[in-house]
Design brief:
By secondary structure, the chain is mostly beta strands. The chain has helices at 2-28, 248-251; strands at residues 34-47, 52-63, 69-81, 89-90, 99-100, 104-116, 123-136, 142-154, 159-171, 174-176, 179-192, 197-212, 215-226, 233-246. The strands form two sheets. An eleven-stranded mixed barrel has the order 1-2-3-6-7-8-9-11-12-13-14. Strands 4-5 form a two-stranded antiparallel ribbon.
């Protein structure tokens, strides 16, 4: 029992340190080459059975330095399978109820993005694929690796490019009454064919809170460095409402 408390305390302190560093960096770079954005998002999940799931993501980008907004609309399908060496029952960031963790997940999807407003110039069409490897660790910590290739058509001329993104993440569920808390941290570098180089990295720390069977709220703080972005240092607050639906077959 003592080891559990120590491990949980260490994890929570790590998340607190990430948030503290974010706040310090926000103050320090206020006069530097930086920008600040707000990313509200709604994610809708439809579980067909324990393996198959459909989803729709609708993120919006609000730029603090301007009045413009961008919107993206994703449609995706997931398939999960396989056992893990260590059996783990938990809610993940994107699950509405506890279930046994499957070792592998693949996802395919499409995205359409555009600017809201007359003077916005953002346009993008995207086809994505993902493969996730989930590895339960001691004390129900979960380590996840995600590889995500993206085919992109940008701008009015639909200029083609592709990206390869790799994300490593650690998360853990904590329960209090009927509520579930899943704090997490992750890091994700991007390789972009337009520059033939790793041009971007994102560091994210946040928590997903579930308090009702069909709803969860996620909040995170993001730091992004991109040498080809208008401003190299991006700081963002991301707030996501998750809404869950499922077939009667998956409820059983």
């Amino acid at each position: 029992m003592a080891k559990f408390k120590l491990t949980r305390s260490l994890f929570l302190r790590s998340v607190s340190i990430v948030i503290f560093i974010y706040i310090l960096n926000t103050s320090w770079v206020s006069a530097q080459n930086s920008s600040f954005e707000f990313w509200p998002e709604t994610d809708i999940w439809y579980s067909i059975n324990p393996s198959w799931r459909l989803s729709a993501f609708i993120p919006i980008t609000k730029y603090y330095e301007s009045k413009y907004r961008d919107i993206n609309f994703y449609l995706q399908a997931d398939y999960a399978w396989g056992h893990t060496k260590k059996i783990c029952f938990a809610r993940l960031m994107d699950h509405n109820r506890e279930q046994q963790i499957k070792g592998w997940l693949v996802r395919g999807g499409v995205m359409r993005g555009w600017s809201l407003g007359e003077n916005g110039d953002y346009q993008e069409n995207l086809i994505l694929g993902e493969i996730h490897r989930r590895m339960p660790l001691y004390n129900n910590f979960l380590l996840s690796h995600r590889l995500r290739p993206e085919l992109r058509w940008l701008g009015e001329n639909n200029e083609f490019s592709y990206r390869i993104r790799y994300r490593v993440m650690i998360e853990k569920e904590f329960k209090r009454g009927n509520a579930s808390f899943v704090p997490y941290v992750n890091a994700e570098p991007y390789w972009d064919s337009r520059y033939s180089a790793f041009s971007r990295i994102r560091l994210i720390g946040g928590t997903t809170v579930t308090w009702r069977p069909r709803f969860a709220l996620e909040g995170n703080l993001t730091y992004q460095y991109d040498e080809h972005y208008d401003t190299n240092n991006l700081f963002a607050l991301n707030v996501i409402l998750h809404v869950y639906f499922e077939t009667k077959k998956d409820q059983n």
